[in-house]
């Protein structure tokens, strides 16, 4: 890769959201902003290797995208003449300094994650408008036909325009709720990368986990005092740190108790632990109870602090799950707590807790995989095999299916 190509790639990661956000504010149209930004980057691919990388890549891209947008508006000739005239007055304005438009990126994120949009639409729109992923990349990530994904994004932008969804950061009284919606989108993207679904999909999609982490870092830079943003970033880092140890050379999932902890990324773990300690200090000094992502990050911090699975402080893990249940009383949290209870109080106690969740989680593969593990530990091979079989039917991740199949077949 040449220096110019590397500069374009770096600018795409660092400047795409800034440019789209700036044009969205100026023109009030996501379509115009997206297409003009894409054209600006295409121009950079052609020009930078010939003319050299400009000293201010973000400013160059913003100026170029502005001109592309104005040219498109002129061609369409569908705008109000007065509105067009106002835009044209700014045709040669110098680009805004990079630091001045951080709030515009935040407005863009809140617009893409507006609760009026369906969750899958929020995910697609955020990856396209904020992350800069192409429609083919997004469609491959979520196993959707490219044409269908393109239509989904197009309809989302049309809905934002038709419903006049405001391009702004929510008011203070609405901010916490709206931030939680943004974090849910990013967590969904991360989880799809962490445990990717589909028979023709790699078991771990590093491109998606990396993009989710990058966008969460962006949110934290914009909202540094939000505890749940910090908690989600810590959770992602501590999970991503184990990526290289999670799948074997034969493509099989490696359970936590069998992972080579020497292969974990200690730099990511150190950063995740630092963020968890930062939040613990805030909680201790302010008395403000931690949220869901902060507690999940703390649980992962306990796991990644142990040099060996036998060193894990299971009593602390259970206590953290008890705290999490007070925040999120979902059956999935109760299921995960039961896994920790099995290490503390034995598989029989844990199985009783899991069986109480039967009606709520029958269609969830991890419920049956957990039952299979506990039944296996209790020496109940026949029901364990049946539970493995049901888990395999429901699982969508190729590495997880390979792991569950081997464990089932070991029972004979």
From TrEMBL:
RNA polymerase sigma factor 70 region 4 type domain mapped to chain residues: 109-160
Domain RNA polymerase sigma-70 region: 18-78
Gene Ontology MF: a single term: sigma factor activity
Family statement drawn from the similarity comment of this UniProt entry: Belongs to the sigma-70 factor family. ECF subfamily.
UniProt key word Transcription: yes
Pfam families: DUF6596, Sigma70_r2, Sigma70_r4_2
UniProtKB keywords: Sigma factor, Transcription, Transcription regulation
DUF6596 domain segment(s): 178-278
InterPro entries linked: DUF6596 (IPR046531), RNA_pol_sigma70_r2 (IPR007627), RNA_pol_sigma70_r4_t2 (IPR013249), RNA_pol_sigma_r2 (IPR013325), RNA_pol_sigma_r3/r4-like (IPR013324), TPR-like_helical_dom_sf (IPR011990), WH-like_DNA-bd_sf (IPR036388)
Example GO BP: DNA-templated transcription initiation
Gene: rpoE_17
Protein name, UniProt field: RNA polymerase subunit sigma-24
Domain of life: Bacteria
Organism: Dactylosporangium siamense
rRNA-binding among keywords: no
SUPFAM superfamilies assigned to the protein according to its UniProt record, in alphabetical order: Sigma2 domain of RNA polymerase sigma factors, Sigma3 and sigma4 domains of RNA polymerase sigma factors, TPR-like
């Amino acid at each position: 890769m040449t220096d110019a190509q590397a500069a374009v790639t770096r600018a795409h990661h660092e400047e795409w959201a800034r440019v789209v956000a700036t044009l969205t504010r100026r023109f009030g149209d996501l379509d115009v902003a997206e297409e003009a930004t894409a054209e600006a980057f295409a121009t950079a691919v052609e020009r930078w290797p010939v003319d050299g990388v400009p000293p201010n890549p973000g400013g160059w891209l913003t100026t170029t995208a502005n001109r592309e947008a104005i040219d498109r508006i002129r061609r369409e000739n569908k705008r109000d003449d007065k509105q067009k005239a106002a835009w044209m007055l700014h045709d040669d304005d110098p680009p805004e300094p990079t630091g001045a438009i951080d709030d515009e990126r935040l407005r863009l994120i809140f617009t893409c994650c507006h609760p009026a949009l369906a969750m899958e639409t929020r995910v697609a729109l955020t990856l396209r408008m904020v992350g800069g992923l192409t429609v083919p990349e997004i469609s491959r990530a979520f196993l959707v036909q490219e044409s269908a994904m393109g239509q989904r994004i197009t309809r989302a932008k049309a809905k934002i325009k038709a419903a006049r969804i405001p391009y702004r950061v929510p008011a203070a009284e609405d901010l916490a709720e709206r931030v939680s919606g943004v974090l849910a989108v990013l967590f969904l993207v991360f989880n799809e990368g962490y445990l990717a679904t589909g028979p023709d999909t790699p078991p771990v999609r590093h491109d998606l986990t990396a993009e989710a982490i990058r966008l969460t870092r962006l949110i934290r830079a914009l909202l540094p005092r939000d505890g749940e943003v910090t908690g989600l970033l810590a959770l992602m880092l501590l999970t991503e740190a184990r990526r290289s140890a999670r799948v074997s050379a034969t493509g099989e999932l490696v359970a936590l108790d069998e992972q080579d902890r020497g292969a974990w990324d200690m730099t990511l773990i150190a950063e995740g632990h630092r963020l968890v300690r930062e939040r613990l200090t805030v909680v201790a000094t302010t008395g403000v109870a931690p949220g869901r992502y902060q507690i999940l990050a703390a649980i992962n911090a306990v796991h990644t602090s142990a040099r060996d699975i036998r060193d894990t402080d299971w009593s602390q893990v259970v206590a953290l799950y008890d705290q999490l249940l007070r925040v999120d009383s979902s059956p999935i949290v109760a299921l995960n707590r039961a896994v920790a209870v099995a290490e503390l109080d034995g598989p029989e106690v844990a199985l009783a807790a899991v069986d109480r969740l039967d009606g709520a989680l029958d269609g969830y593969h991890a419920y049956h995989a957990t039952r299979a593990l506990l039944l296996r530990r209790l020496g109940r091979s026949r029901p364990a095999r049946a539970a493995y079989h049901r888990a395999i039917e429901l699982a969508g991740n190729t590495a997880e299916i390979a792991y569950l199949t081997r464990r089932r077949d070991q029972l004979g």
